[in-house]
Design goal:
The protein contains 16 helices and 20 strands. It is of the alpha/beta class. It folds into three domains: 86 residues, 3-Layer(aba) Sandwich (Rossmann fold), CATH 3.40.50; 207 residues, Mur-like, catalytic domain (UDP-N-acetylmuramoyl-L-alanine:D-glutamate ligase, 3-Layer(aba) Sandwich), CATH 3.40.1190; 132 residues, Mur ligase, C-terminal domain (Protein-Tyrosine Phosphatase, Chain A, Alpha-Beta Complex).
Length: 462
């Protein structure tokens, strides 16, 4: 077994199994093999490699098994687990019974991180926007910057790429999901950010938000008094569970006494009340994005990024793909793709961003959400709900006799119906409040399909 009581110095010759052959699984398998481990990559699905992937794995002597998790895994010195595999999976229980240590990909990758600063971002909503926004500010600054984690490039790949000889100090900016944070031991960010904690993935956390919060708080598990913890101070549950060791920097709309930046209806202000940026110059829509900006400002100030650089990015950054993304206007109707709105809270934020009637596409694979929490926002902002996917039958009784609604058996038919319902000045919004796996590969696939259909509509279509 690998002794994890201290940070591993060498894994040469150690037998390490990687469960899950997704992007992060393949990346960490390669990183471990490059550092001398005897690696088995195992996935219960049937996986087909591309020719370059197959050649690369063969050159690193990485063994593979697909279609099952074999007993060979129980001979491992260490197991690295995909964030999508829950503790209840039989293979995980067998590994634990055998006394084999289990870590996440971000933990294993951290062991090989070069001398660098590490910024980690988590939260139920806003992670991707905030991570990307921080990266956009850093990337043309005094830092050699790497961005990924739960978005884009796995941490393990970033570690392999971090050979830049620019002479600039390195900084890694990572989005972290609660699943990734469940099995960390030494992972240690210099700056940890928790944007918010609301009901999400309750099917994974036994309907207990405290278990979900505990996973999120692992982001600060190894922080010391020299590190920074940036947190949403308007979240009372989070306020009651703050870590004791790191320096704490609150942000929010309630203007907590300790905040470095405040806001009113017109401006973002410094703690002394001086205008930092007029809000009319910000391209990002919505109150939720204002919070993402406040969190970002706390980080960029900590690293002494120039104000000119920050203002330049904030006035030009229009958001990320699949997050309240403007697609097109057709006959006076605006179409927005918020496929990344996979939980209740993110849909609330999306609806609050519009002061016009909304036709919303809701549904997908349910994550054991309480859709009744959407009712006040649907009543205030929505003229019609289009129900799709597996969750449609669960959402329908909640909105019956309250909101006008109809069913659609595909994304294409939902959009066609929306074009018939909407009038000039309305908004058609894909904000499903559900996972995508009933009809699509992931939320990106769902968002791309939505956009392709919208972009294919003729202006003359009746």
């Amino acid at each position: 077994m690998i002794n994890l009581s201290t940070l591993p110095i060498s894994i040469t010759g150690k037998i390490i199994s990687v469960l899950g052959a997704g992007r992060s699984g393949m990346a960490v398998a390669q990183l471990l093999a490059q550092n001398g481990a005897d690696v088995l990559l195992s996935d219960s699905r049937q996986i087909t490699f591309t020719a370059p992937q197959k050649q690369n794995f063969q050159s690193l002597n990485i063994k593979t098994e697909f279609g099952e998790h074999s007993k060979s895994i129980l001979q491992s010195d260490l197991v690295v687990i995909s964030p999508g595999i829950p503790d209840t999976a039989p293979i995980v229980q067998q590994i634990e019974a055998a006394g084999i240590p289990i870590v996440s990909e971000i933990e294993a990758a951290y062991w090989f991180m070069p001398d660098a600063s590490l910024i980690a971002v988590t939260g139920s909503n806003g992670k991707t926007t905030t991570t990307t926004l921080i990266y956009e500010i850093f990337k043309d600054s005094q830092y050699d910057t790497y961005c990924g984690g739960n978005i884009g490039t796995p941490f393990s790949t970033l570690i392999s790429q971090a050979t830049n000889k620019s002479g600039k100090p390195k900084v890694f900016i990572l989005e972290m999901s609660s699943f990734q944070l469940e099995r960390i031991i030494h992972f240690h960010p210099d700056v940890a950010i928790i944007l918010n904690v609301t009901d999400d993935h309750m099917d994974r956390y036994d309907h207990d938000i405290n278990l979900y919060l505990r996973a999120k708080l692992n982001i600060s598990l190894n922080q010391t008094e020299n590190d920074l913890f940036v947190y949403f101070s308007d979240d009372h549950l989070l306020n009651q569970n703050l870590p004791s060791r790191p320096k704490k920097r609150p942000f929010g709309l309630e203007n907590h006494p300790g905040t470095m930046f405040k806001t009113d209806m017109v401006s973002i202000l410094t703690k002394n009340g001086q205008e930092y940026l007029n809000r009319k110059n910000i391209r990002l829509l919505g109150e939720h994005n204002l919070l993402n900006i406040l969190a970002t400002l706390n980080v960029t100030q900590h690293y002494n990024i120039s104000k000119d650089r920050i203002i330049e990015v904030l006035t030009n950054f229009s958001g990320i793909e699949h997050r309240l993304e403007y697609v097109r206007t057709i006959r006076g109707v605006d179409y927005y793709n918020d496929s990344k709105a996979t939980n209740i809270e993110s849909v609330k934020y999306a609806l609050k961003s519009f002061d016009r009637p909304v036709i919303i596409i809701l549904g997908g694979r349910d994550k054991d959400s309480d859709f009744s929490l959407l009712l006040p926002f649907l009543k205030e902002h929505v003229k019609h709900v289009l129900l799709i996917g597996e969750a449609a039958s669960k959402i329908e009784p909640v909105i019956r006799n309250i909101i006008e609604y109809s069913y659609a058996d595909s994304m294409e038919n939902a959009i066609i119906d929306a074009t018939h319902i909407a009038h000039a000045g309305d908004v058609v919004l894909l904000a499903p409040a559900c996972a995508s796996f009933d009809m699509f590969d992931n939320y990106e696939h769902r968002g791309r399909v939505f956009k392709e259909i919208v972009l294919s509509i003729s202006e003359d279509t009746k």
